[in-house]
Every structure is written in structure tokens, then in C-alpha cells.
Amino acid sequence: MSAHYSVVQTDVKTGNVVATLPVTAIQFTHSLNAAGTATVGIPLFAPEADPESLAPGVSGLAILRDGAPVWAGILWALAADIDGGTLSLSASGFHSHYQGRHFVNGWSAKSLEQANIIKAWFAYFNADNGIGTDVSLVQPTGHLRTTVWTRYELKNAAEAIGELADNIGGFNFRYVPYWVTPGKKLGHRFVMTSRSGVAASHTLTHRVNANVTGVSYDSTALCTVAYATGADKGNGEKLVGIFENASLAARMPERVMVGSYTDVKETQTLIDKAQATINAGAVPVAIPELTLYPGQFSPLDFVPGDVTAINVDAGYVALYDEFVVTECATTVDANGNESIKLALASKELWSNATNPS
């Protein structure tokens, strides 16, 4: 039996359910360390298509699978097809809220556990006309960080979270919706997990339980030497962190990557950034894309950042390896049929970016 999907409109600030929407189609995507997106179609002339109630930036959307929230976020745009009689709703996950939040008073945290920094950031933004992001599941990671910005830098919160995650010993993150009061009030939690992901719990075999539609191989990130430049020292010079991959340099000509982190004021942080660049560029990246066979899996069976095993033998493509899920995209048509597609990347890309200790 196929899953039953529905969509509710919420108030972004409170999470209160406003209405259940009459949907014509649903598409939603969970993306690794990013907001993710959703597109929902409703009849243009439905009573729920009310501009006084359904408004970009004010309204939220939550997608329910058999009554349980599997995706939630903020409505940012609408497009009306008058001839077709449909209204297309475009939403992004809750991380999109933090793209519009800034440290207007600056911020200073020196050698603090990164989980505590994250908690402090969300407390700061929740207290000032926020969306109530819950951080009760955030646990200590054992890694200390220094983050210092002046009020004049107006650091973007989403960017800050991404930069903190993208470090040696960093983390993957996502926002998980849940019922505070079933059917009436929706909440969402910020969840941090190890960059090494959860051990593979599924094996996807081409033409058995999945259709591998394509595999691309990308060497764009290959790097033998990485430089990370930071803040100006005040004399026209910038702080610099350098890291090298001698074993790769023995196999290929020198290839340099340079990253700019103008708000980083600590050399060790820049060295960590350079090492992360080296680790991410240690091997060519294999990027499979596949569609799961219907009825065998749920969209929540494949959380971005987790590991899944892929088995495909098709000429040049011979993959018998573990991969990290980078995106899980689900489409539900007008008849309620569910289609789930995955995008993946080499496991080494992520495991190499974790602290080896």
C-alpha cells in the first residue's frame, strides 16, 4: 500500500497549524548541510488559496507522510498558473531563516566546545523575533572552536553555521520537524551528527531495488597544496594557513587551491580550513544518481550525511562501495505515487574531513 501524503500550512513564528491544503502535487528535497526545498501545487481557486492567510515569509509548510512530518520549512514564493488553475508554492527549509539573520552586535567565543557555540547562537536568534529552533538534542563533540566577529562585519548566521560545520572535526547538520501537539502545533529541532555518518544500513543494487540512472566522476577538487587566507593583520598582510598532500603530489602535477576566510583571525583555524580542502581533494569523486524502486523505502530511510552501499556493474561503471547521501528528493504525483531519487558522493570525501584522532 502506498503512503498517504498531505500538506499543512503553519505559522512560521509559532508552528501552529493554520490549514490543511488541497494538494495537486508535491516535491521535496533533503540536502546535506543545506536548507532543502519543497514545491507544492494547490488549486488556484481553493478557499485555502487565501492571500490574507497564505503569505510568503509568514507562512510555513509541513509535508506529512501517513500523518508524520517528513519535511517542513518556510514559504518564500508563489506562482499562479491562471490558465491551468493551479498555484505553485515554493518553500525552503528552516536554515533559510538563518540566511536572513546576522550577528548585528558581533560575536566572540574563544576555545569553546562547538556544540555550546551552536546552542548560544540559536538562543541569541530565538530570543529576538525568531522561529523557535530547538537544540535539546545537540550534544558535545569534543572539539573547541574560536569564532570572533565585530558588529561591523554583520556575519550571516547560516554562513557561520556552515563554516563551523565545515572544519576538521566538524559535523553534519539538519533541521528535523516533529509534532509538539499532533495535528495542531509543529516544532523543529537542529540536529548535529558526525561527518563520518551513520554506518550503512541499506545496500542498493542496480536493477534489484534501485535504478542507477548515471554516475559522474569529478576531479575538480583534487588538490596537492591548499592555502587558506584570513583576516588582514593591519599592515596589509593576511593570516595564512597551508596544508599539503605529498602522496598525491607524487602522482600528479602540483594543483593549488586557495580559500578566502576574511573573518578568520586565528592561524590554526586557517590551517584546519586548508587541511579540510586537502582532505576533500584527496581522491576523484564518484557521484552516482539513482531512483529507488517504489514501495521499498521511505524518504527518511536515507538521511543526508548517512552512508549507503551501492552495487552496480555496467561497463566502465563498477561500483561496489559505500557512499554518502548528499540529497534525497521525493516526488508525489496527483495520484499519490511516490518516487524517491538519491544523489551520493564518495565516502572518502566526508570521512577524510573528520579528525583522525
Distance between the termini: 46 Å
Characterize the overall form.
Answer: globular
Provide the β-strand percentage band: over 45%
Secondary structure: number of strands: 20
Biggest β-sheet strands, sense, barrel: 13 strands, mixed
- Sequence stretches where pLDDT stays below 50 over 5 or more residues: none
The gyration radius over C-alpha positions equals 22 Å
* SSE run: EEEEEEEHEHEHEEEEEEHEHEEEEH
Oligomeric assembly: single chain
Number of helices: 6
Computed structural class:
mainly beta
Q: Please estimate the helix content.
A: 10-25%
Q: How confident overall, as mean pLDDT?
A: 92
Organism: Streptomyces sp. R08
Protein name: Minor tail protein
Question: What topology emerges from the helices and strands here?
Answer:
Blueprint: E1 5-11, E2 17-21, E3 25-31, E4 37-43, E5 59-65, E6 68-81, E7 86-93, H1 95-98, E8 107-113, H2 114-126, E9 144-149, H3 157-165, E10 171-181, E11 185-194, E12 203-205, E13 210-218, E14 225-232, E15 238-244, H4 246-249, E16 256-260, H5 267-280, E17 285-292, E18 307-314, E19 317-332, E20 338-346, H6 347-351
Parallel strand pairs: 12-18, 14-16
Antiparallel strand pairs: 1-2, 1-5, 3-4, 3-19, 4-7, 5-6, 6-7, 8-9, 10-11, 13-17, 14-15, 17-20, 18-19, 19-20
Summarize the structure.
This is Minor tail protein. With 357 residues, the protein is mainly beta.
Task: Report what the structure shows.
The radius of gyration is 22 Å and the shape is globular. It has 6 helices and 20 strands. The longest helix has 14 residues, at 267-280. With 357 residues, the protein is mainly β. It has helices at 95-98, 114-126, 157-165, 246-249, 267-280, 347-351; strands spanning 5-11, 17-21, 25-31, 37-43, 59-65, 68-81, 86-93, 107-113, 144-149, 171-181, 185-194, 203-205, 210-218, 225-232, 238-244, 256-260, 285-292, 307-314, 317-332, 338-346.
